[in-house]
Each structure stands twice: as C-alpha cells, then as structure tokens.
Amino acid sequence: MGYGLDWQMLYYIIAGVVAVLLLALLIYIGILNRRVSRLNKKYEFFMQDETGKSMEAKLREDVAHLHELQDSMELIHKTQKDILAVQNHCFRKIGFVKYNAFDNIGNNLSFAFTVLDGKNDGFCLSSVYGRNESRIFAKPIVDGKCLYGMSEEEKESLDNALQYAGELTTVQKD
C-alpha cells in the first residue's frame, strides 16, 4: 500500500458514490418519465377536437377541403368570365324620356326609350302620341351613335342610356 491508503476501501467508497449517483439518476429518470407521461397525456388531450379526433387528422381534412374550395373558386372565376363575356352582348343600359309631342295634348303620352348593350349598341324606340293617331319609330344605335336623325327627346334618351348606372329615372319634359 502506498501512502497509507487502503485501495480496497477506496474502491468501495468510489463504488458507493457511483451507486448513490446511479440511484439518484434512476430516481431522476423516473421523475422525468412521469412528467413526460403527464405532458404526453395533456398533449394528446389538447390535440383532439371536440369529437375526439386528432388535430392532425382534422388538419388533413381541412387541407383537402381547402383544395376542393380552390377548385370551386377556379370554376366560379371561369363561369364569371363567361357571364361577363355574354353580359357585354345583353341590353343593360336604359334611357327613358316622356314628353308632350303637341302643345294641345297633356299627360306626357309621347316617349323616347333607348336600350343599349355593354358595347353601346341597341335601339331607340319613340312613340309620338296625337289625338287621332299614335306613331312608333325605331332607330338603331351603333357604338353610342344613331345612324339616323334624332329628335331632342331621343337624343336625351340616348344620353340617359349612355350614362345609365343601374336605376331607371323618368325625365319628364314640360
């Protein structure tokens, strides 16, 4: 023996310290394992929706649903483009003016009515009311212009149609 040390005793002390350390580590591992287990239970509880399904499955369903919605939106946009293309050829602008064609007849029974599509093509329909007869005239409108001469009321009706923004307002001339 050197220096008065008992090596066997030293080995026992070191082995005891290592054993205590191992025991402490095993206890600590047990505590950590229990905490991880509790945390895992809480995680599983919070990762479920109200029906008990996992959030991961729910997210997968939601992503699939979003893809379906995206396809639907693309179809809606295509349909909307088709509708807008057709709408340009539909009558959608209106101009209307009521007036007295003759001084001796009241009630503004004569009128000028203009209907235009999205490209400002259409027609102007005029009715001139008299005591003994009534006449109706139709004049084509191309690109916002009439191919024939127009009365002041017809011009006003055409201007109203060109400025039409969605609601019909009757303009009566005195």
Structure description:
By secondary structure, the chain is an alpha+beta fold. The chain folds into three domains: 1-46; 55-87; 93-172, no CATH class. It contains three helices and six strands. The protein has helices at 7-46, 55-87, 152-162, and strands at 93-99, 110-116, 122-129, 134-142, 145-146, 171-172. The protein has a six-stranded mixed β-sheet. A hairpin with a 4-residue loop joins β3 (122-129) and β4. The longest helix has 40 residues, at 7-46. The radius of gyration is 45 Å and the shape is rod-shaped. It starts with 6 loop residues before the first helix and ends with a strand. Mean pLDDT is 85; it is low at 168-174.
Number of strands: 6
Mean pLDDT value: 85
The oligomerization state is single chain
The low-confidence parts are 168-174
Question: Main sheet, how many strands, which sense, barrel?
Answer: 6 strands, mixed
Order of the strands making up the biggest sheet: 5-4-3-2-1-6
Taken as a percent bin, the fraction of beta residues is 15-25%
